[in-house]
Amino acid sequence: MAKTPFLALAVAVAAVTHGHLDHVGGLAELQSAFPEMGIIMHSNEAPYLVGPRKQQAKYSSVPSDNAAYTIVRSFLQKLLPQPEADPARTFLLSGDSGDVADARANVTAAQPAWLPPRGVLSFLRVPGHSPGQVALLHKPSGTLVSADVVMYGRGLAHLDADKLLELPFERLFPSHDDGTGVVPGALRKLVASFKQ
Ligand SMILES: [Zn+2]
Questions:
Q1: Which of 65, 94, 174, 185, CA to CA, is 20 to 30 A from 127?
Q2: HEC sequence for the chain
Q3: What start and end residues bound the annotated signal peptide (predicted)?
């Protein structure tokens, strides 16, 4: 009897742009479903997501440039479990920009199951919205994931939005995007409108 073919899918690595609940709410399930999965984040974001809870700073005390989020967060944090990354499989980015391939293990002995090869994925730290928020640029496709620096549909650009214009992207996918993304010209207009 022929065996039924199936496709085994696995997530090798999760890149966390920042630790707000609407971006890491599924982290626990991902870690459980994919035990080998690595987790990448900026070292400035790590105190809120990695390590014993008692040693972590309270995320509710982190200043945010988004008043609406600050209010919603204060309620959500009482209702929802705080996402926590497994320290042994967390890899940290440092500095203001660089290649994701240079992420270093949070625990010295830990070895990444997989990291993007050099030249594929780069990061730019954009901390105006949270201490260690990063935008991620997939170089081969020119795709930029801006996290909450730009929010689709709300015309909302955070403090670091003009930094993104320095990156060689072809299409930017804002948070809460409908999947179509925006081109550099649209971001230029948005940034200009905030400076008027
Ligand atoms: Zn956010």
A1: 185
A2: CCCCCCCCCCCCEEECCCCCHHHHCCHHHHHHHCCCCEEEEECCCHHHCECCHHHCCCHHHCCCCCHHHHHHHHHHHHHCCCCCECHHHEEEECCCEEEHHHCEECCCCCCCCCCCCCCCEEEEECCCCCCCCEEEEECCCCEEECHHHEECCCCEECCCHHHHCCCCCCEEECECCCCCCECHHHHHHHHHHHHC
A3: 1-19
